[in-house]
């Protein structure tokens, strides 16, 4: 077995910061191009950029840091431990923990929504647990962790719930193999 690593976005808030700052930077750029066609000179646009320089620098810094904010799961060859850390860059790691593979479990919530034109969208949120304690949440299925922790692919008799946007349905229990406590 070789060393393997799986990387996820640090958290959902980082994704929102990145998206928001990238959109604002895009709006500033597009407005700059539009005002050039409206008769502004390049000098006037440059002056406006100069006035906005601190805001632009802050947006670039937020976009860069939030894009680089990552959660990393790593398993070294011939080890029965998972190394987990969160980082803003590869040089700035702010939390690091190790977990025994047998104590890891996952639970995936499936959410289905239907648009007005009848298109169904399914999203998955997976919770990773060590023992009974939640250690990480990511958007996706446990299959994203299967290369790293093949023990999570075993079948389970545990029930999970499927959340639907139809209030009549409520949360229905379904049989799945999305979560298992491995020490039992």
Strand content of the residues, in percent? 35-45%
Q: Label the structural class.
A: alpha+beta
Described by the principal axes of the CA atoms, the overall outline is: elongated
What is the CA-atom radius of gyration, in angstroms? 22 Å
Ranges where pLDDT stays below 50 over 5 or more residues in a row are 155-184
Major sheet details: 5 strands, mixed
Q: Considering DSSP H and I runs of 4 or more, what fraction of the residues is helical?
A: 25-40%
Q: How are strands sequenced across the largest beta sheet?
A: 7-6-5-8-9
User: pLDDT average, as an integer?
Assistant: 78
Number of helices: 3
Spatial gap, N to C terminus? 26 Å
Q: Topology as H/E string?
A: EHHHEEEEEEEE
Number of strands: 9
């Amino acid at each position: 077995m070789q060393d393997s690593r799986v990387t996820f976005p640090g958290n959902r808030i980082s994704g929102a910061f990145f998206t928001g700052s990238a959109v604002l930077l895009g709006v500033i750029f597009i407005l700059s191009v539009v005002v050039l066609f409206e008769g502004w000179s390049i000098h006037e646009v440059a002056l406006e950029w100069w006035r906005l320089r601190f805001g632009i620098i802050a947006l670039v810094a937020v976009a860069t840091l939030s894009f680089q904010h990552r959660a990393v799961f790593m398993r070294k060859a011939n080890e029965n431990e998972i190394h987990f850390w969160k980082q803003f860059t590869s040089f700035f790691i702010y939390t690091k923990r190790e977990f025994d593979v047998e104590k890891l479990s996952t639970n995936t919530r499936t959410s289905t929504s239907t648009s007005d034109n009848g298109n169904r969208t399914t999203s998955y949120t997976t919770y990773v647990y060590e023992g009974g304690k939640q250690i990480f949440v990511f958007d996706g299925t446990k299959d994203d962790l299967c290369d790293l922790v093949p023990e999570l692919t075993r079948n389970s008799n545990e029930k999970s719930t499927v959340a639907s946007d139809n209030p009549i349905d409520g949360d229905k229990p379904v049989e799945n193999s999305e979560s298992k406590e491995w020490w039992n």
